[in-house]
Amino acid sequence: MAPAHAELEAHRALLTGLCYRMLGSIADADDAVQETMIRAYRGLAGFDGRSQLRTWLVRIATNVCLDELARRKKRVRPVDAYPPGTVDGELVSYERAHWLEPVPDASLDPVDRSIRRESVRLAFVAALQALPPRQRAVLLLAEVMGFSAAEVAETLELSVPAVNSALQRARATMREASAPHRDELSPEDEALLARYVDAFERFDVDALVATLRDDVKFSMPPYALWLEGPEAVRGWLHGRGSICRGSRLVPVSANGQPAFAQYHAGAPGEPHHAWGLVVLEVEDGRLSSWTTFLDVETLFPRFGLPLTL
User: Fold this and answer.
1) Model-level pTM?
2) How far apart are the C-alpha atoms of 65 and 281, rounded to whole Å?
3) Residues 6+ apart with CB under 8 A from 73
């Protein structure tokens, strides 16, 4: 008997995680999952149950993503695409489709999120985007979705030796590109984040800079400009970044990493307004990455966040 529509929908969150990793955008992932469901609904009569429903849907979703990637350029992070700038550098902005975007943890399947946390981190997803699309698919199907080499080969219409070769190359690339990570925050990490929030909301620049590693990377998509090192961040916060004085930070959950919704202070008597989604990376007791995504009108609703506070 063909599966009911509700059985297909039960896999939506898992498919969203796969499509996000493939495409680097939650908006694109939602579109790809919707197209997957449409193709699946149309093909229900031909589903004979010889494979698991999950496997069938993952195959459809993978090919939807490959079709999409054939039509557009890969998404990037400023730190991967451009050299570091200076505090007075030109603020060149690119359209939303140019940039890797964060994903709300709540959009992902709970099991997928807890078991495969590393594979949704910004650094990992950014490194994935550097792989050719089919290599990307091979890696995700084998290491995130748990497909056998034969299942990957059938999904992508490749030979098993071709799959194994692509997987070997993809793993080598990811080893070079992926940043160190920790699955769970330690009490010391939690204390560091508390100091960061306190310093940010008081706008104590010295205290903020004290939370940063010497090689910290600070970026603000959709701007291509990014800064490296605590002193560059200090200069930014004392200069153009001083408009953040009086901000409030609201904890959110993004990419399995510490994240906050930043709201700028309004005029006296007016509410704070959405400014950016801050995603942080903690490494060796300090912040190694500070990314503020400024596309609030797209991202805040997807994270269930109001535009005023």
Assistant:
1) 0.91
2) 28
3) 98
Cα separations (Å) of 50 from 64, 224, 228?
21, 48, 53
* Element of type H or E holding 216: strand 212-219
> CA-CA-CA-CA torsion for 219, 87, 96, 180, nearest 10 degrees?
-20
Is the separation of the CB atoms in 201 and 309 below 8 Å? no
pLDDT digits (tens, 9 = 90+) for 198-250: 999 999 999 999 999 999 999 999 999 999 999 999 999 999 999 999 999 99
CA of 77: how far to CAs of 25, 106, 125, 281, 299, in Å? Answer: 12, 22, 10, 14, 16
For the chain, domains (ranges, CATH) are 1-72 (1.10.1740.10), 122-178 (1.10.10.10), 187-302 (3.10.450.50)
* Core vs surface per residue 36-58: b (16+ CB within 10 A) or e: bbeebeeeeeebeeeeebebbbb
* DSSP state for residue 275 in the 8-state scheme: E
Please give the structure tokens belonging to residue 232: 């560059």
What are residue 216's phi and psi, to 5 degrees? -55, 145
Residue pair 75/25 in contact (Cβ under 8 Å)? The answer is yes
CA angle 163, 164, 165 (to 5 degrees): 90
Per-residue pLDDT tens digits for 45-69: 777 666 688 899 999 999 999 999 9
Contacts 24+ apart (CB under 8 A), 132-138: 133/22, 133/65, 133/66, 133/69, 133/70, 134/66, 134/158, 134/166, 135/166, 135/169, 135/170, 135/173, 136/21, 136/22, 136/170, 137/22, 137/62, 137/65, 137/66, 138/163, 138/166, 138/167, 138/170
What residue type is assigned to position 257 of the chain?
Answer: Q
pLDDT in tens, 68-114: 999 988 999 999 999 999 999 999 999 999 999 999 998 888 766 55
* Inter-residue contact 17 to 115 (CB < 8 Å): no
Neighbours of 97 (CB within 10 A): 13
